[in-house]
Amino acid sequence: MNSTEPMEPIFDHFENYIEVSNELKSELTKRIKEVHFRKSELVLDANTICTKSYFISEGILRTYFIKDGLEITEYFSASYEWVNSPKSFILKQKDIYYIDAIENTTAYCLEIEDLMYLFDHFPEMERYARLSMGSVFGHLMERITSIRFTSAKDKYEHFQKTYHDIYHRIPLGMVASYLGITQETLSRIRAEK
Amino acid sequence: MNSTEPMEPIFDHFENYIEVSNELKSELTKRIKEVHFRKSELVLDANTICTKSYFISEGILRTYFIKDGLEITEYFSASYEWVNSPKSFILKQKDIYYIDAIENTTAYCLEIEDLMYLFDHFPEMERYARLSMGSVFGHLMERITSIRFTSAKDKYEHFQKTYHDIYHRIPLGMVASYLGITQETLSRIRAEK
DNA sequence: ATTACTATTTGATCTATGTCAAATAATCAT
DNA sequence: ATGATTATTTGACATAGATCAAATAGTAAT
């Protein structure tokens, strides 16, 4: 079996946090399968419990919710990151978040049951989850600071840094709602540079 | 030995996420010790690596950083929560956050080395950490939403909900910097109700 | 108790950003 | 390609909240 090659980016990702044994690799390979989404395709419906986690290899997904009839972007996710609806996924309950594809996207899908199996049989997976959540935690704290005390322009610059590989591929309206400013303001900020 | 009683709130906290064996209880009891801080006392200096995590049993701690010479509150922590400087604690490096006591505070202190020992010998501790971080994660996401799209008044109301047990014990200036609004605005909001 | 210091309130402006509206520009479907 | 949606830009105006300044109120130290 030579099909482990596409799994390399996932293994690399894990190896930022833990050592990945061959046994774990083979379990991961067995349980993770490739999926594709086309641009605009819905990945997760908010009226649904999120039972899958996706590791993106190509493309961009957007997590958003609806407020007063408008789509508000919670965050964007790009290559080599896991995406799911965190509370829904962990607590097996519905949450407000939709996920869709901003571009045609290739990802690796892991079901919650399989993840639970891995947690139960590979304690290092628990450690991986704890450590990787720690780094996400740091990003959230940074983002909170960036939102609280900065002008619309500074927010946009922070966004460009955070998403420097992909920011130019994201429609203006989605960026504006992510930043909590209006499209018009964002458009003017872009224009003046 | 009958001194395990004051540890009960900690055990209860853990039992929200995992089962706590007697063996784990005795290890926790051995490794956690009670500490006290007086009002205004510095708990963590930003020029320092955070090596301790505190579980508060009484009082309020404040995590803040300095921006343009001003103290900006990152968050408040009250009874039955763990406090540390997350990135500093996990990555053993300096970060920007100070922690001090808003009131006289009693807490239980766990050193990072002891925590690491527990992670290594009790896989359920890894699971506890993963799950409890998950719920903190949810709060951060909520807070981000609350900051992005609401008026100063709504922010203050969200703050009151989040900290309903303690919000009235926190000085106005600290609340204002937590919310990212000026003291004057906050004062006016309070007045009009 | 009295003084000094710190925190909060109140008032008068000012400004960044929102809102509403309309004009372009870009993208999509036939 | 052509027309129909949809996204972005531009303009005029409104406003929440910031800033600056000064008056109270509250707290702590002698």
TrEMBL record, chains A, B:
<keyword id="KW-0808">Transferase</keyword>
<keyword id="KW-0418">Kinase</keyword>
<dbReference type="GO" id="GO:0016301">
    <property type="term" value="F:kinase activity"/>
</dbReference>
<protein>
    <submittedName>
        <fullName>cAMP-binding domain of CRP or a regulatory subunit of cAMP-dependent protein kinases</fullName>
    </submittedName>
</protein>
<dbReference type="InterPro" id="IPR014710">
    <property type="entry name" value="RmlC-like_jellyroll"/>
</dbReference>
<dbReference type="InterPro" id="IPR018490">
    <property type="entry name" value="cNMP-bd_dom_sf"/>
</dbReference>
